[in-house]
Amino acid sequence: MKLIVLNLPRTFSENDLAKLFKTYGNIKGCNIVMDEKTSASKGFGFVEMALAHEGEKAMNALNGHMVDQRKIRVKLSTKA
User: What's the predicted TM-score (pTM) here?
Assistant: First the structure.
């Protein structure tokens, strides 16, 4: 199950993102979207959970969760 994570702190790394989701199950992959010109984070990323029920659990638990004084949003990704 692929999830999109929005409103991430610009200082958040892929390792930070993986740690956040690892609590809810096995992660197949994750990435933070970076600006091509500046190499700075765009403030969102994707996490692919190994099993659908783990993705549902992570989405329900983390949507609206505060990370560095920012309320993140976690939704099902429409990107394949």
Answer: 0.92
